[in-house]
Design a protein that fits this description.
Blueprint (H helix, E strand, L loop, with lengths): L1 E3 L6 E3 L8 E3 L6 E3 L24 E3 L6 E3 L33 H14 L6 H15 L7 H31 L2
Antiparallel strand pairs: 1-2, 3-4, 5-6
Helix pairs in contact: 1-2, 1-3, 2-3
Length: 177
Amino acid sequence: MQIQCPSCSRVLDFPDDRAGQVVTCPGCGGQMQLPAEITVEPAAPRADPGPASPGGPTRDCPYCGEQILAIAQKCRHCLTMLSGPQAGQPGGTGGAEAVASGEGKKALVLGIIGVVIFCIPVVPIVLGALAIKYGKSVKDNPAEAGAGQAAVILGYIAVVLGSLVILGHLAKLAGHF
């Protein structure tokens, strides 16, 4: 039987006698349960069949409409799970709904701390820079875009405040000479 790995979308061959067993993908190490029976629904006819798939018959993904293998358990385009207990749920950030990774919250906390403790030299600049970096890294994830945007803004504020404090200390030192 051929099965598509839900983690890396690699097409794998397993003996039919392993149906229903949990197997490990040799490509990514992800685990999946083989279907007890393979039932292939006929694909809807398309005006343009496109290039032949090396993995076998194809069908349209019910969530994004892209061509996928008929035996796919996860769409390689939108990353939505197609079978099993998680059917209809996104398997990654490109799914029908975005999944929060927590990076946006981390970035926001760094930005808040950087702004709150701006009077300690250098610390707000470092925390602000980290908030900017992590805030920008989640801009494409709709579930965390708001927190990421707020973190970037707070990060810039923390960097500016920290820089002003350092400049104030330098000005004081320059006045003593």
